Amino acid sequence: MKLSIVIPAYNEESEIRNVIEQILAVEIPGVEKEIIVVDDGSVDRTGEAARSCGVWVMRHLVNRGVGGALGTGIAAALRTGANLIVTCDADGQHSATDIVKLVEPIRAGRADVVIGSRMLSSGGMPWIRRAANRLANLITRVLFGIRTTDSQSGLRAFSRAAAERIRITANRYEAFSEMLDEVHRNHLRLVDVPIRAIYTEYSLSKGQGFRMGLRTLFRLLLSRRLKQP
């Protein structure tokens, strides 16, 4: 079985090597790992740092956003014959060992898509982000009719069949909710598993701030309106 780990990365020169090395150290019996880093138009040495680890690096000439990078990486993983695909943030927020529990429900035939939920683990996430995440979960449920405990998590796993059916059209953070809309539309089985969030001053500087969250909400509302008959 082949597992492709897709890492969208934008200006992550200081962290990307450590993230890759931790993932490479994780052993999953019966699974061959491949790491695909999508350098999303970085202006630092993110791509060079990733290549020094011997992994596959793809590059966008301009910054498209996390949704665009995920679309590029998942498509590449499908082309290389991946049976399982995991997406992982590049800022060191996720524990590489959680990848093992993430793919287990798919390997056991109990799920098509698995979300690593930071909300199911105690501690780790600052209260303001926890509150914002609960609001995002509610909005995702209202707009797209699907329930999850962590709609904005970047640590996710997909079976090959699920990845082939999910279409990502959004370029920015709204792609996380768009994926869930695709899960609902395609009647895919979704499971949440608890993961450990690792927040540092660096990782807290990444992700969605308040203004970005408002922009994401606007794009989600627009996307929902356009999809309505």
| Major sheet strand order | 3-2-1-4-6-5-7
CATH class: Alpha Beta
Total number of helical segments? 9
Largest sheet: 7 strands, mixed
Radius of gyration: 16 Å
Distance between the termini: 40 Å
Short summary:
The chain is of the alpha/beta class and 229 residues long. The protein is 42% helix and 17% strand.
How would the blueprint of this fold be written?
Layout: E1 2-9, H1 16-24, E2 32-40, H2 46-51, E3 56-60, H3 66-79, E4 84-87, H4 98-107, E5 113-117, H5 127-144, E6 156-159, H6 160-165, H7 174-185, E7 190-194, H8 201-204, H9 210-227
Parallel strand pairs: 1-2, 1-4, 2-3, 5-7
Antiparallel strand pairs: 4-6, 5-6
Give an account of the 3D structure.
With 229 residues, the protein is an alpha/beta fold. The chain has one domain (2-227): Alpha-Beta Complex (Spore Coat Polysaccharide Biosynthesis Protein SpsA, Chain A). It contains nine helices and seven strands; from the N terminus they run E-H-E-H-E-H-E-H-E-H-E-H-H-E-H-H. The chain has a seven-stranded mixed β-sheet, sandwiched between helices. Strand 1, helix 1 (16-24) and strand 2 form a beta-alpha-beta unit. Helix 5 runs parallel beside helix 9. The chain starts with a strand and ends with a helix. The mean pLDDT is 88.
